Amino acid sequence: MKKYIVEFIGTFFLVFTVGNAVHSGSPLAPLAIGASLAVMIFAGGHISGGHFNPAVTIAVWLRGKCPAKDVVPYWIAQFAAGLIAALLVVKLHGHATSAAHGMRSSAIVEFLFTFALAWVVLQTATAKGTAGNSFYGLAIGFTVLAGAVSVGPISGGAFNPAVGLGVVSMGFEKLSQLWIYLGADLAGGAAAALAFKALTED
Predict the structure, then answer these.
(1) What is the sign of the dihedral through the CA atoms of 131, 137, 140 and 146?
(2) Distance CA 36, CA 29 (A)
(3) Residue 100's pLDDT is what?
(4) What Rg do the C-alpha atoms of the chain give, in angstroms?
């Protein structure tokens, strides 16, 4: 149960930061989001692995470092946290105006940067060659920062189905975009696990 609570806390603060940072209109919003993820990973990684993302959970499970019995409880904790954080943001700021994104371009960039995110997680937090390092949280957070800055305008820059649920619930994205965040992001996480297993000695 401790692992699931930690997954809830980390995902909650990630999505809560996303909502408030985007509402602020600050050009530093992507940095705030990446930093939030990094510090939550440092805070909770030793307890739950610090996934805070259903796509990362599926990647770590396929890689063999997450028990199958934890996958669904992790997802429940992550999606519940994303929804509750979103509802609190709506309470604070009201409903946002939905952006318009192309479905095909959104799917492409969401797949690619979720792949990148899960790849970095697997290589820095689960690989034998980087075991015991102290930089994994920064590497993961900066991957999200890079994605948010470079392709955020194309897809909304979720790279995380729980964040996707959050931004749709806050009104930043249309409901149709949720299926991109679910399908493309989970596929990106799974592809990263397959690439890791094919390319990394462990």
Answers:
(1) negative
(2) 11
(3) 86
(4) 15
- Cα distance between residue 80 and residue 44, in whole Å: 17
Length in residues, the chain: 202
Domains, the chain, in order of start with CATH, read 2-199 (1.20.1080.10)
Please report, in angstroms and rounded to a whole number, the separation of the first and last CA atoms in the chain: 29
Name the residue among 171, 3, 179, 19 with its Cα closest to residue 85.
Answer: 19
Handedness of CA 170, 173, 179, 184 (dihedral sign): negative
Whole-angstrom distance, CA of residue 96 vs CA of residue 109 = 23
Whether the full predicted model's pTM is greater than 0.85, yes or no, is: yes
Which residue reads 């015991």 in tokens? 132
pLDDT in tens, 125-149: 999 999 889 899 999 999 999 999 9
The Cα–Cα gap between 90 and 169 comes to 8
Q: What's the pLDDT at 99?
A: 87
In this structure, are residues 159 and 117 in contact, taking their beta carbons and an 8 Å threshold?
Answer: yes
Looking up tokens 């799917």 gives 107
Q: Of 156, 146, 54, which is closest to residue 98 (Cα–Cα)?
A: 156
pLDDT digits (tens, 9 = 90+) for 7-55: 999 999 999 999 999 999 999 999 999 999 999 999 999 999 999 999 9
